[in-house]
UniProtKB/TrEMBL annotation:
InterPro entries: NAD(P)-bd_dom_sf, SDR, SDR_fam. It comes from Actinomadura harenae. This is SDR family oxidoreductase. Belongs to the short-chain dehydrogenases/reductases (SDR) family. Keywords: Oxidoreductase. The keyword Oxidoreductase applies.
Amino acid sequence: MDLGLAGKVALVSGGSSGIGLAIARDLVREGAVVSIGGRDAGRLAKARDGIAADLGAEVGTRVLDLRDNDAARAWADDAAAEHGALNIVVSNAGGPPAGPTGAFGPDGYRDAVDLAMVSHIAFVQAGLPHLLRSGWGRVLMVASETIRDLIPEYALSAIARSGLAAYAKTLVHELGPGDVTVNVLAPGYTATDALLNGLGEGADVDAETARIAARAGIPLGRVARPEEVAAAGTFLLSARASFVTGTVQVVDGGRSLGM
């Protein structure tokens, strides 16, 4: 299936591992020009070298913290200047710490909102003028299933990320006619480094993740693989998803009971 992504210029933040890296790999396979960003230069280099070895393609890298709005804007501007256009912005960043509402004071809430909402919006705003100028654009903000179905032990995630849905739905009405779409990807429990590293050294990964799935009530009986979540995100970034905008796409193995 041709997703119409050949030659499109894409930025993927949080692209050194997990879901971000899996999306970047999908975009490379589809012929897009990709740059990945992240805070750790070593992890970015490893991801870049892995893509080159596996897919025979070069990707750009940018060391930055998505909360640094000036750095995010410079990344978008530089990509557009280098390649003549910018078409795709994937905003992806780490999540706030787990815990109930009472586990955090005001500063904890401010930090969570800055990381899980404001940094995404700032990155989108940095890229949006270039997307509009190119006449074809896709925005994908990677959040969490907590945006749609609350999980009490992840209070900060639900509170901070829920604003992304409101931002996406408001923005699509402001954009009006054209071929620029804005969507939110909301993955459930996924076998990213953050989850796997929490299992402890020497853990039986299959057994432990199965226990996580059982405890969370995931009907499929396992957690997601990053590439499974990325597949949904890559479709939303594609030309074939040209009439899909303002949505929150949950990828949670059927865990959510909300309609």
